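Q: For a teaching handout, I want to show students what a protein-ligand complex looks like in token form. Below are the inputs, and the small molecule is iron/sulfur cluster. Please produce the holo structure.
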Amino acid sequence: MDVIDRTSGEFKDALELYTRTPLLELGQLADAARWRKHPDPVVTYIIDRNINYTNVCVADCGFCAFYRRPKHGEGYVLSYEQIGAKIDECKELGGVQILFQGGHNPYIPFEWYLELMRYIKRNHPIHIHGFSPSEVVFFAERFRMSVSDVIRELRAAGLDSIPGGGGEILVDSVRQRVAPKKAQTDEWLGVQEEAHRQGLRTSVSMMYGMGESPADRIEHLFRVREVQKRTGGFTAFIAWPLQPEGTPELSHMPKTDAVTYLRTLATARVILDNIPSLQSSWVTMGHKVGQVALRFGANDYGSLMMEENVVSAAGTTYRTTIAEMERVITDAGFTPRRRRQDYSLVEAPAETVAA
Ligand code: SF4
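A: Here is the structure, written as tokens, with iron/sulfur cluster included.
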């Protein structure tokens, strides 16, 4: 466990940077850091599909408008065939991966997940970016397995990489307040570190705006940077604000503004100097802020998501097409390129398919 000293000069400097530096100056620092890491005027994006295999969950996160308690009439678990059909639709649009996440459903046995991985690889082969660290911790507790065995077995069955979902704010006092039944900070980062040890590359996220302090956000960034120093396994960092509408306990929280988003992104670019890529979160902020983010540290435009039940359940409805995504990136002064989860580039087909 890495203990972050909030009284250190480095921490205070980072906090000062986040809270006091004039916005455009902060943006320039982040932009310079971005060009040092990515000297070409290229902005990448990925075509993938979110598949939320179940909405049944016992974690009761106060910010989640997506889940249903067990036995609720609106609870669901997708069948293998439904999942396979969604993958086929994704591939038809040029999709290269599925982002596979779900609630902490106590009724699904571990073998269901393993057989599903095998089923996908056998019948609908695609890169499976799946099971956030919180789900992995839930599996370990539920099936009385070690985290490393959970990851090893899922990998052997077909899992390709682990997403950074459920990171929220990696400070236990915040997690205890908003998601006490979910993986706490050391557990969450422990899954990431174990995944890196087993050769998987992962992304890491931060959802802010749940009443935490600016210092909590800086501590989150410092914790992530420490893990990366040891493993080098994070490919990308993604920050987005809480979408408070419709959430069970946080609907009173203010929607965060563009300036806070840009300050958070830029500060992350400066502090996370050992993480290669930062994503622009157009899904929550819209294309206009998404474009500005490309000069505030982001070098990736994230995902053309065909489905995003968790964010849309909370009221965020920004949608796009491949053509629009490429136009937005081009208008911002960059060349759009499609990528895979590991950020390797995909050769685009001759014609662009509108999603
Ligand atoms: S965020 Fe995930 S773990 Fe938390 S209640 Fe929603 S589905 Fe469950």
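A: Two things your students might notice: DSSP finds 13 helices and eight strands in the chain. The domain at 9-338 is CATH 3.20.20.70 (TIM Barrel).
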